Amino acid sequence: MRTGRARPSPATPGAAHFAGPPGRVSHTPEQKARFEAAVVGDLRAAAARYPADADLSSLIKDLRGVSTDFVRLWDTGIVGVHESDAKTVHHPDVGAITFDCDVLTAPGSDLRIVAYTAAPGSDAADRLRLLNVIGTRTTTKDSTLG
């Protein structure tokens, strides 16, 4: 839950989840709980690796000021990283696309690569093929693809 305070400038998609406006990604309650715990755990691990990083400390302070959910999870002391889950992205032209989402971490670094994949033959794969066909066409609220 977000509070009424001014929101911080989110530096990561995880921070944006807690502080930014709602995005196009939706989660089931279980996915949301796993995602939020992973974001907070990853930030806590980063804070332990970089205790003198003023920007990171400021981000954490700002998130504590705008999100009661962040505060609740931060106060548990959880430490962890992102791994795998599913994400549903709501695309304005083709609707909801549910991806497998894997977060790959380069050992010994802070690099994270997020891979979104769709199983061959799945509804998500079909929607991705449709996006490939419509490409970069610009649509408006009242226009149709044709």
Give a topology summary.
Elements: H1 13-19, E1 25-26, H2 29-49, H3 54-66, H4 68-74, E2 84-91, E3 95-105, E4 112-117, H5 123-134
Antiparallel strand pairs: 1-2, 2-3, 3-4
Helix pairs in contact: 1-2, 2-4, 3-4
In DSSP terms (H or I, runs of 4 or more residues), the helix count works out at 5
- Describe the main β-sheet briefly: 4 strands, antiparallel
The shape, in one word, is elongated
Q: What structural class do you assign from the helix and strand content?
A: alpha+beta
Number of strands: 4
Instruction: Please write the string of helix (H) and strand (E) elements.
Output: HEHHHEEEH
What's the rounded overall pLDDT mean?
82
Q: Write down the domain tally.
A: 2
* Low-pLDDT segments: 1-10
Protein name: MmyB-like transcription regulator ligand binding domain-containing protein
InterPro entries: MLTR_LBD (IPR041413)
Task: Please characterize this protein's 3D structure.
With 146 residues, the protein is of the alpha+beta class. It is built from five helices and four strands; from the N terminus they run H-E-H-H-H-E-E-E-H. It has helices at 13-19, 29-49, 54-66, 68-74, 123-134; strands at residues 25-26, 84-91, 95-105, 112-117. Strands 1-2-3-4 form a four-stranded antiparallel sheet. A hairpin with a 6-residue loop joins strand 3 (95-105) and strand 4 (112-117). Helix 2 (29-49) packs across helix 4. 16% of the residues are buried.
